[in-house]
# Entry
Amino acid sequence: MKNKQIIKRMTLIEKALLLSGKDTFHTTDFKKYGIPSLCLSDGPHGLRKQLGASDHLGLNESIKATCFPTAATIANSWDDALAERVGECLGEEAKSLGVHVILGPGLNIKRNPLCGRNFEYFSEDPYLSGKLAAAFIRGIQSKGVAACPKHYAVNSQELRRMSNDSVIDERTLREIYLYNFELAIKEGKAKFLMTSYNRVNGDYTNEHEHLLTNILYDEWQYEGVVVTDWGGSNSHVEGVRLGSHLEMPSTGLPGALELVEAVNNGVLSEEILDQRVDELLTIIFELSEDNSQREASILPNQVDRHHELAKEAARESIVLLKNDHQILPLKPKVKIAVVGDFAKTPRYQGAGSSAVNPTQLDSILSVMNHYDLEMTSFSKGYERGGKVNPSLVEEALKNVEAADVVLIFAGLDEISETEGAERGHMKMPRCQEALINEISAKHARVVVVLSSGSPVEMPWKDHVQGIVHGYLLGQAGAGAMMDALVGNHCPSGKLNESYPVNYGDTPSVNYYPGLEKTSEYREGIYVGYRYYETANIPVNFPFGYGLSYTTFEYSDLEVKDNNLTFKIKNTGNYDGAEIAQVYLSAPGKEVFRAKKELIAYEKVWLSKGEEKQITLTLSEKAFKYFNTKTNDWEIESGSHTILVGASVADIRLRVSKELLGTTSITPYDKEKMQCYFSADIKEVQDQAYQELLGFEIPNSKWDSSKPLELNDTISQMYYAKSWLARFVYKILTYLKNRSEKKGKPDLNILYIYNMPFRAIAKMMGGAVSMEMVESVLIMVNGHFFRGISRLNKAFWANRKVLKREKEYAE
Ligand code: BGC
# Structure
């Protein structure tokens, strides 16, 4: 133990308090032992440090900080070096603000396009997600600040996120939902890790023996700290026992006393508690070594420099989806009509805990005068929130007449991309679709510029000549977009996810979101392109796709062991970058495999006519699958083809090599699991799913005849025995629906709606004890008088505990 001397002097309750946090975003300090407090702060694409009242949902204003493009955007750059540089800036700003731990990056797999938080995550592919996350982490941590990748693991749904159980087979878990974290931990060397709210196969992730003890610590040799998501702790005692350190936000003295009681009762050994304290102290001391920190603002010399990097990051992430008749780049002096509210008030980030208060916010209209174009008009075009306003369309139709080219700025409204809620569908607001249709029926030269952190259906795709996707470009995105539109920058971004034609095409369409107790991952490994490619489903735009103003030729692929080389030549008329992607096509005979799996990528910058040789080393896992029978990563014997291409669907070079398998034990009974071998996975029957899982499918239905329990959600009060509880449910539902109609997410209501009863105690800093919540539950379950009398007792008992808090204030 590194901190033995201090730990020896600390009392049991002090040690417990250290593991329970001090307030919403700080760890507990003990001046008498020289233990400082750490400040943790959101979020992935910029700092969200609050000076006044702090909350974990981004409700109250935070100090101004640079708002970089969100993870889903930067992922389109496929540029590890850029991600690392953004990470460095985040680290610098954290230092200036006195933040020790940045709660990000978020790297959950984008399992389904409707997840409200997809904009915060990198990709549908674990390799791309893990590599980019590792780069961010390296950047952040190079500045003496810790990164905290999140949310570990299988957290791809927002609905009832704090109680939902992800039911998933071990192979899918390892290959898809953990491989990204494995890369982030091993290559990024993250010092913190945030567990997710949900359960995985029955257990909460923060107290998950398999995820924590077996995989994180034993296999990956993790040496950092594990923190709960905010209010996500179920049993802190179990968490600490199995490797979690910190419960956040603080649960006050009542929370700490749970640990004390567990030690006194022999449920938790003091040795283990000491070990967690030691591990946490080690990182606390390491991170607080440099105390030259400020609190009030980021440094003046950071503001402009970071704005410029935010712009560069945005520029590198823009994806050109369609460019018929070379409508882009726009020629100098061309007459353009600008249509769309987003051009005036940009959609540049999502809602929730990641929301940053930007140091500056550029809009298309505010930067337009820097470009040599003749803007003939601006028309708002549509109302935010989807309300139909025909006069806006009429005005736009009139205005576009005088222009050579119409630029329509469209995409998803704020309500669609928020923490705590799924999108209801994959369409853009109807009023925006109608606007695009009407304008493109009238004008032949239309370019749609999209802003949305996740895919949308595009029924209007064939009616317009150009489509440029900005995703959510951050505070400096407008200039970056204009640079791409006029050709100051040659677009090079490629999609980090597939764009299905219709939502109905997505592999998890029938399983997502899990509506009651569980979320069944029946589609297994077939997430995103792994499905579309294997099952031959046409998409609007494939994974890894993105056009350029120039063209590239690939040649001379050679593979030797795990090393491959090939050449790329810029054969067009612009300088620009290409993102080359390497996929594996494995034999898939006895072990079903996706037709293509991303195993490497490289972004390369080439001037006109230039050719470069690319050399890549494949990772040790490149050819492997996870064998659930041997519990190991294995190779199947047979021909493995390495494919090099410009997207998953545009393969330019290939070479095959015969590999000898590493095991003769195959994990599957082909007969029973035919659907997985043919990727026919949209309606997986119980027998095949059960075979895949290797255990019985858990019951996913709520039993409304049973009383509600601590881990049931507030929204389940719709079947509560007490009429009062049902009434409260109705009010909450009304407030939720009202905010949805208004087009502005009410994060508080969403949080409460999806939160389990236990979280009332976990989120109140000790003001409400678990016993008080249990008493409320008794009332909810129809025993009002019993409940109220117990609540009364529990309230006074908790008051007594709270009075003692002052004793430990030092
Ligand atoms: C989110 C986390 C975030 C935390 C603190 C939670 O609701 O899920 O991603 O870091 O709040 O704000």
User: Anything to note?
Assistant: The pocket of beta-D-glucopyranose is lined by residues 42, 56, 103, 150, 229-230, 353 (CB under 6 Å). The chain has a mean pLDDT of 95.
